Amino acid sequence: MKNSENSTFLIRIHASDNILVLAESVTAGSSYTVNGVNHTFEGSLNLGHKIASHTIRKSEKVIKYGIPIGSATCDIKPGEHVHLHNMQSDYLPTYTLDEGSKFGS
């Protein structure tokens, strides 16, 4: 079992983050501990994926690097994988402009 409280397996990047980041890839069935509670990964996840450090309520901001990176689209339980299936980006796709328009117009 991997224990996030005693290793660098899951990393809290900033003190105000409500997610933990995987410091290594994991396989389905691996178990781990978040805040004293044991969890099991349902599927394999790669390095860099996010895990909820505590309950994140629907519409609550997902915080990574100390800044909001999106909002929860449903309640997310502690230890649950946080990704596109349960969060949305709050950033506008400013890199996609209509053809012929100018930035800022």
What does this structure look like?
The protein is mainly β and 105 residues long. 0% of the residues lie in helices and 31% in strands. The protein is globular and about 30 Å long. A four-stranded antiparallel β-sheet has the order 2-3-6-9, with no helix packed on it. A three-stranded mixed β-sheet has the order 1-4-5, with no helix packed on it. The chain has no helices and ten strands.
Question: What about the largest sheet?
Answer: 4 strands, antiparallel
Total count of helical runs of at least 4 residues? 0
Q: Low-confidence segments, ≥5 residues, pLDDT <50?
A: none
Read across the widest sheet, the strand sequence of neighbours is 2-3-6-9
Give the mean pLDDT.
83
Q: What is the terminal-to-terminal distance?
A: 54 Å
Form type: globular
Using the CA coordinates, give the radius of gyration: 16 Å
Range of helix content: under 10%
Characteristic terms for this protein:
four-stranded antiparallel β-sheet; 31% strand; mainly beta; single chain; 105 residues
What's the SSE blueprint?
Layout: E1 2-3, E2 10-11, E3 19-22, E4 31-34, E5 37-40, E6 50-52, E7 61-64, E8 67-72, E9 81-82, E10 87-88
Parallel strand pairs: 1-4
Antiparallel strand pairs: 2-3, 3-6, 4-5, 6-9, 7-8, 8-10
What can be said about this structure in brief?
By secondary structure, the protein is mostly beta strands. The chain has no helices and ten strands.
